[in-house]
Amino acid sequence: MSRSHFTLAALATSAVAGLDVVGTQPFGSMGHGDFDAALLTARDGGHWIVRVPRSEKAEAEQSADLVALRALSTGVRSRLPFAVSSFAGQVPIAGTRAVVYEFVYGSKISLDQITPELAASLGEAAAAIHALPTSFVVDAGLASHNAIDGHREAITLIDRACATGLVPIALQQRWEHAGAESALWQYTATVINGAFGSDSVLAASDQVTGILGWHGLRVGDPALDLQWLLGCTQPGATDAAFDAYSAARGQIDRQLRQRATLLSELEVARWLLHGTEVRSTSIVDDAVEMMSALTDDAQLRLGSSISDSTIALTTDELENLMDRSERAAG
Length: 330
Known about the structure:
Layout (H helix, E strand, L loop, with lengths): L4 H11 L5 E6 L8 E8 L4 E7 L2 H16 L2 H4 L9 E7 L2 E7 L4 E2 L7 H15 L4 H5 L7 H17 L5 H12 L9 E3 L8 E4 L2 E5 L6 E3 L16 H13 L6 H22 L3 H16 L1 H4 L13 H15 L1
Antiparallel strand pairs: 1-2, 2-3, 3-5, 4-5, 6-8, 7-10, 8-9
């Protein structure tokens, strides 16, 4: 049963000393999703978000988010061209906890709303994250994976997916070729958000104003933060994102876009493996259908490699797949 925004407001006043709430409204879909959440207005005009997890997965995500927010010190945040929320307080409730954050201003976006101008801002935002010193992530005890780790994980995923016998031959050859292509994996691991996507971005006037959801913060493959931008539908948007990123970071990772393409395709492999692990025919069928769509692409039929390919899932496929893969990971 979902908690009303009035109940959440009361919890927030218990969590944050001196918080005087004069207005409250639901934030997101009450009774649905991973959290019960409310937007609060304080007497001084400030705004706050209070969230209570509705599942063990959401609780784990919230805990990881708090660790990341504490690691993002004032000095680290000053290097970013957008706002990051701050932890304000918490209070126990029914075996879990309500957590209050400062509200970050901006509007949520979807892939089909990303203009070339906003895409460029997203590329710059990702570049700013990736330029952060890795030391603060390591000092916080967060995960750190180098290029060898990333390469090994991808090969293991490809091998496991192909072992199901459900991956089309053309797609199997494409993935295996990418796994064996050493140049694709010659990158320097950076700080990454790890959960970067349309659900985590706040924007106004085609500029990124804030990024939410830092539970995936770690050192890893920068392509992981950019793969979702391959699903932009407005002409020129994806190019604008990668061009802006390269302008900010320099040509230090010449295979970035190609590796992002592979990682986006391997989300289908993750979904397939999740379906086989939980013995869900519907999930397996869904993954097989997606792989067939990839195989049907003209370039793939001609045997193109990841290195010279622009194949990408459609907007709906990519957004839905990311959501489903996150649930599977939980």
